Amino acid sequence: MADVVLFHSAYGLRPAVHTAAERLRAAGHQVHVPDLYDGRTAGTVEEGMEIKDDIGTDELLRRAVASAAPYSDKGLVYAGFSLGASLAQTLALGDVKARGLLLLHGTGDIADDASSPGLPVQLHVADPDPFEPHDWQTAWYLRIGRTGADAEVFPYAGAGHLYTDPELPDYDAEAAETTWRIALAFLDEVG
């Protein structure tokens, strides 16, 4: 069993995030789903980015750290959707007890001095993805490798950016099912 903190995307804590958490719980994992937007949700990515900008990047990171802190002594798997994946990555790379990093639809910047020897990482991403272009993904893969992490990338041809969310036009049922099957095996392995 893995202890997972699952961060929402720029859309906020919408039903798809709760559905994903329930799916992981049904497989035997402990899942924490913080609301970094204090109940606010967005109907479009533009609205979501406005909420994100209104709160501010530093405050979102502070909220993410505070929400994970009560569980971090157990050795968390950090996970997130898009914007939440970026936050999860930042926390995982800063937590020596992190057991894994599950990135869904996104990545983030990596500090030059980041070090996470042996950290298991999975990235599930649309191919192509307007928010994660190939050049960025290549650079990210090289940088995450320099941290010592053990990263696997799973691209999904033709899927939209947030293809696991059935309420969005990006949804791709086949890609979503494949993602969850692989992600659950990953959580079983690192848990």
Layout of secondary structure:
Layout: E1 3-7, H1 15-26, E2 30-32, H2 45-55, H3 57-68, E3 77-81, H4 83-93, E4 100-104, E5 120-127, H5 134-146, E6 150-157, H6 173-190
Parallel strand pairs: 1-2, 1-3, 3-4, 4-5, 5-6
CATH superfamily heading: Alpha/Beta hydrolase fold, catalytic domain
Class in CATH? Alpha Beta
Order of helices and strands: EHEHHEHEEHEH
The average pLDDT value, as a whole number, equals: 97
Fraction of residues in H or I helices: 40-55%
Q: What integer value in Å does the Rg equal?
A: 15 Å
Please give the count of helices: 6
Provide an overview of this structure.
- 40% of the residues lie in helices and 18% in strands.
- It is of the alpha/beta class.
- It has one domain (3-190): 3-Layer(aba) Sandwich (Rossmann fold), CATH 3.40.50.
- A six-stranded parallel sheet has the order 2-1-3-4-5-6, with helices on both faces.
- It is globular, with a radius of gyration of 15 Å.
Could you give a quick summary of the protein structure above?
By secondary structure, the chain is an alpha/beta fold.
